[in-house]
Amino acid sequence: MTRARVGIIGASGYSGLDLTRLLLGHERVVVDFLTSDRWVGQSVETRVGVPVRQGATQYVSVDQGLERAAECEVVFLATPAETSLELGPKLLAKTRVVDLAGTFRLLDASLYPTFYKFTHPDPSLLQKAVYGMPELFRDRIVGQRFIANPGCYATAATLSLAPLVKQGMVELDSIVISAASGVSGAGRKASEEYTFMEIDADFRAYKVLSHQHTPEIEQTLSALAGRPVGLVFTPHLLPMKRGILSTAVCNLREGVDAAEVTQTFERAYGQEPLVKLLASPEAVRIADVVNTPKTLIGTAVKGRKVVSIAAIDNLQKGAASQAVQNMNLMLGYAETTGLV
User: Fold this and answer.
1) Burial of 325 by CB count in 10 Å (0-12 exposed, 13-18 middle, 19+ buried)?
2) Catalytic residue IDs
3) Which terminal residue of the chain, N or C, has fewer Cβ atoms less than 10 Å from its own Cβ?
4) Whole-structure pTM value
C-alpha cells in the first residue's frame, strides 16, 4: 500500500502533539518531518510516547521543514495565526495545506483586525481556503489543496445548531451560546493566567463579546441559513486539561415541536460515523469524548425554547482529528481512517 508523505509545522504545541500521535498511527501516511525550533534534534518517540516505525525520528527546524514540504502530499500548520499567515502562502506553492489556526477561516478580511489583531495581507487567499467541517461541507473538501480547519468552540457550537438553522426551524436573532473549554485551548505558551494556581478550583468567562470564534460561528450558520445570523457567544475556562461543552439556546419558529427537532437531528447526523446523538442533553459529558474524535449532541424542547448541547475534545475534534478527517477527504481516503 502506497503511503502519502505528510509533515507538521508546529509539532510541539498541544494540537501538534495530538496530530503527531494520530498520524504516526495512520495506516495510509508516513510522517516525513515534524518541526519544533525548541526541540530540534530531539527524539520524536521520546516526546510523544508513540513508536516511530518509519519517517521522522527527530524534530527539525521550521526552515528545514519548509525545504522538505515539496516532498509531501500534505503539510499541516499547527501554529499561531500570525505564523500561519507567513508560512501558508509559501507552503501552498509546494503542496496541499491544512491550517489549524484561524488565519484563513473568515471570508471577510475586515474582521481580522478586531478578532485576530492583525490586518490580513492577502484577502484573496481567504476565498481559496475551504472551511473544513466534514459533517457540513464534505463535498467541498474532497480533492482540495487548501483547508482552513475550524476552531474548537466553533466546531461544537456549529454542529449543535446546524440542522435547526439549515432547515429554518429557529428564530435566527435568538441564538445564545455558552461554552466552556479545558485550559489546553489557550495553547502551550506560558502565561500566568493559565497556570495551575490561577485556574484550579475556579470557573470564569473570558473574551466576553470579543472571542475570535464568534464571527466564525456566525459565518457558517449564515451560510446554512441563507441569510445573516447574529448571536451571543460567551466562552468560559474550565479547571481541566481538555474538552469542550457547548450549550446553545434559541427560540423555535411557530409550529415546530420536539418531535420535529429530534427527526431533524437524526436526518442530519444519524449516519455520521463521528457524531453520536444522545437521548437527552444531560447525557452529554466531556468525559465521554476526551481523547476521541467524537461529537456528542443532545437536545431538549420546552414550548418554543430549544436547548442543544454538544461535547468534543478541543484538541481532537476541535483541532487534530478534524484535521485528519480533512486530510483523508483531500487524499481520497476513507474519512475515518486513522481515527476509529
Assistant:
1) buried
2) 152
3) N
4) 0.97
